Each structure stands twice: as C-alpha cells, then as structure tokens.
C-alpha cells in the first residue's frame, strides 16, 4: 500500500526494539510502500486491548509501526501534535501516579507509627489493685481508643474482683484513680458494682473513662 509518509506514518512508533536509532527521515516529497497488519494483538500489563477503528498497524521494511496515540493513552499518557514545530508531544502522568502512591505509602507509614505508638502507650500505663481481707483485685489491663488526631478518646480498664472473705459480700463501687508520672492524682472514675459475691466467687469488671488526661502514667483500683 502506497502511503504519504508525513500524513500516514506520523502516528507510528517502532515496537519490539525493531526500529534503528537513525530512524527513517521523511520529507513532503518522500513516499514509502508499506502493508497494514491489523491482525497484530496488543497487551498492556497482561491485559489484551483491541485496536480502535481508524488506527492501523504498519509493516515497513521489516519493522512494525503502531499508532503512538493508542499506545501512549493505554499507558496513561497524552499525545499532542504541534503543527508549528512539526512535533509529536507525548506526556505521561506516570510520575504523578508514582508521587501519589508514594504519598499513600508515607501515609500508611504514619498510620503504622501511630499504631505502634498507641500500643507502646497502652503497655506503658500500668495498674495495681488495692486488695484487703474481703476482696482481691487482679488481672488488670487497659485498652485505649484513639480519635482521628491520635489523641486518647477513652480508656477501658478491665480486671477481676474476687471475694476472699469467709462470707458473702456485696461490694458497692469500684473506684479507679489515675496518676501522672509524679504520682499525682489526675482523675478518677467510680464504677457501680453492686453484685453479690459468694465466698471465693470472682466477677470481671470493665470501666470506661472518656476524655482521659493525656499524661496518664499508672492507676489504682480499689473497692468501696
């Protein structure tokens, strides 16, 4: 098939390393004989794509030429023709995609760091139960709920209360006192228990404290 080079091969690029580094120079008066081979298939990242109507795959002098716009757009690029400078301009947003993915990676790193920090804070807050001749408090642990800003939204103190006396008991309240690193009281919470405990009977308890002080260091739990 006899084609005008400037108009017909303008949208062609060489694939498969088949085009020589010198390329083929064309002027307005030059022409070449080529064949159309639209049976050739395209795969982009393993996904097969169909060549749209109006596009052709050309074979010239043993080299295959494909439509640059079709290929570039499948790879996320844009193609423009500058008639003033006779230039095909191919621009890709690949770097933008890389930058966006990098930002997502950094965000995930920050979230992971926050989770690690929250875990460390949770483990750093220690507690002790004040036991006497009637009650034993043990199995204490604390869990922390954070808001979107990484600030403590609430803490939950879990434990176990056991009647160690020689008769049934009905504890009225469980009192939690929060302390800072200087052992200064910075908050407290009273949890109504009010359940009958027979001899050696144990019951778990869970006390939630909303908007706790950020500098909690330790806590104590006692029965009232």
TrEMBL record:
Sorted UniProt keywords: Coiled coil, Signal
InterPro entries: Cu_amine_oxidase-like_N, FxLYD_dom, Mao_N_sf
Copper amine oxidase-like N-terminal domain mapped to chain residues: 59-90
Coiled coil feature spans: 91-125
Pfam family, one: Cu_amine_oxidN1
Signal sequence region: 1-27
Domain of life: Bacteria
Entry protein name: Copper amine oxidase-like N-terminal domain-containing protein
Organism field: Collibacillus ludicampi
């Amino acid at each position: 098939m006899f084609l005008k080079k400037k108009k017909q091969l303008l949208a062609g690029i060489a694939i498969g390393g088949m085009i020589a580094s010198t390329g083929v120079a064309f002027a307005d008066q030059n022409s070449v004989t080529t064949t159309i081979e639209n049976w050739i298939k395209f795969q982009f990242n393993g996904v097969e794509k169909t060549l749209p109507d109006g596009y052709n795959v050309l074979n010239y002098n043993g080299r295959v030429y494909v439509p640059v716009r079709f290929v570039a757009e499948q790879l996320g690029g844009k193609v423009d023709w500058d008639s003033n400078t006779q230039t095909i301009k191919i621009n890709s947003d690949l770097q933008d995609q890389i930058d966006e993915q990098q930002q997502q990676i950094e965000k995930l790193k920050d979230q992971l760091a926050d989770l690690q920090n929250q875990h460390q804070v949770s483990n750093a807050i220690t507690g002790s139960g004040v036991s006497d001749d009637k009650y034993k408090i043990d199995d204490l642990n604390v869990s922390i709920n954070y808001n979107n800003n990484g600030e403590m939204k609430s803490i939950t103190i879990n434990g176990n209360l056991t009647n160690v006396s020689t008769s049934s008991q009905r504890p009225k309240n469980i009192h939690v006192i929060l302390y800072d690193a200087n052992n200064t009281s910075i908050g407290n919470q009273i949890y109504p228990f009010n359940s009958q405990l027979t001899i050696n009977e144990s019951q778990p308890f869970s006390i939630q404290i909303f908007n706790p002080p950020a500098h909690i260091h330790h806590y104590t739990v006692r029965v009232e």
